[in-house]
Design a protein that fits this description.
Elements: H1 2-29, H2 41-44, H3 47-58, H4 62-87, H5 93-112, H6 117-122, H7 126-139
Amino acid sequence: MVRNVVAVLVGVLICGILISLIQMISNMLYPLPEELSGLTMEDMGKPETIEKLSAHIDGLPVAAFMIVAASYLIGTFVGSFAATKISGSGSIVGAAIIAVLFIIGGVLNVTAVPHPTWFAVGHFATYPLGAFIGWKLGSKGESTIEPSVAV
């Protein structure tokens, strides 16, 4: 059980780091306007900040959103692959936990900051897809869907 918990924690950490690193590429290619750089959490609660951020997001090209969606797919894939390998059980449960945690983060993100509807809805497919592929490749013949073997 401890091994499974550690596996999920490591998977979540890897997933979060990869998402951040890949999104840095998007931020370099499509930087925030000067008035939005260096925002604090307090600033994010202000309506005028949300309006400026929303206007910036509305002006982003599709490529910027594709990089972000790719970050979610790659992050959950690698995090789930690592969790599956570390747990050694072949169970899908660790990968599913990682997907669910990042789906919750995605919900919080799209509700806090306006996104185009197609992205707000469509990006949710990346988490379970990445987790499933990571689990499938990580388990290589040991795969089991029964939750009793994992957590």
